[in-house]
Amino acid sequence: MKKQEDKNLFAMRHSTAHLLAYAVQKLYPTTKFAIGPVIENGFYYDFEFEESLKGEEIKKIEKEMKKLKNKDVSFEQSWISIEEAKKLFKNQPYKLEIIEEIKKGEREDFGQKDKVSIYKCGEFVDLCKGPHVKSFREIGEFKLIKTAGAYWKGDEKNKMLTRIYGVAFKTKDELKEYLNFLEEAKLRDHRKLGKELDLFIINPSIGKGLPLLTPKGAVIRNEILKYEEKIEREAGFMPVWTPHIASVEIYKQTGHFQHYSDVMYAPFGIDGEDYVLKPMNCPHHYMIYKSRPRSYKDLPFRLTEPGTCYRYEKTGELSGLLRVRALTIDDSHILMTENQIEDEFKLCIGLIRKMFKAFQLNDYYVRLSLADPSDAVKYIADDATWKKAGEILEKIIKDNGLDYVKAKGEASFYGPKIDFIVQDALKRDWQMSTLQLDLFMAKRLNLTYVDKDGKTKHPVILHRGLTGSIERTMAILIEHFKGAFPVWLAPVQIKIIPIGEDQLEYANKVYQQLFSQGFRIEVDKESETMQKKIRKAQKEKVPYMIILGKQEEKDKTVSIRTRDGKQENGISLEKFAERVRKQVEEKN
Ligand SMILES: [Zn+2]
Ligand SMILES: [Zn+2]
Question: May I ask the CATH architecture of the domain 494-586?
Answer without folding.
Answer: 3-Layer(aba) Sandwich (3.40)
